[in-house]
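**Archive record**
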Amino acid sequence: MARNKCILITGASSGIGAATAVLASKYGYNIGIHYNSDLKGAQLVGQMCEQEGAVTHLFQADLSRPEEVERLFTQFDAAFSQLDALVNNAGIVDTPSRVDEMSYARLNRMAQINLIAPMLVAKEAVLRMSTAYGGDGGVIVNLSSAAARLGSANQYVDYAATKAGIDIFTKGLSDEVASEGIRVVAIRPGLIETAIHAKGGLPDRCDDLAHTVPMKRAGDAEECAHAILFLMGEGASYITGTSIDVSGGR
């Protein structure tokens, strides 16, 4: 398989990011794996990608720090000759809480990591992809959430609000760069079996809420990865500025 395209995936040490990295390697991409603290997870994902024949590099960065976003891309540029696709996946949740119980520190951290960081990461991608800057074009896939529609009352309203921001950012950025060879799209995962639920203090959340999904089950990371790879591919060449729900109908 000829490999002449390179992808950067943020938050790729586990979950949807990891599944996307492995699937992209099977589609012929070389893979840039970003992680923050889970080096072992990133190394394992890298090994799986390399088994598929992908050239793979790992990049550590705390995306809540603007200087580390810039360093991430400096390292990417040193490792790869071009950036063809970005999967803007890194994000967090916090423990379940009502809004009237949320601290400024929590809200600030949520906004920094889930909204401001993806915007800064996308900015760096545009500077490399846009024909206005001498690039060859590319695709940016943002990770939103069904929570952007549902609101996540009594649990994660702050998370839902940042993901609604990602939806609007996807539309606005897509309009800015559509004539410069860049498509900007998003997926909205619904109830997906990943470690993020345990990190938010609800390890059984998928089992508890499966009955609320029309398909009566949670999804998995691979199902999200397939949607992302579709949006990155030629079959989606006339799709930009929109989000696709991967939510089992919820």
Notes: The mean pLDDT is 95. Residues 148 and 160 are 5 Å apart (CA to CA). The first strand starts at residue 5 and ends at 9. The radius of gyration is 17 Å.
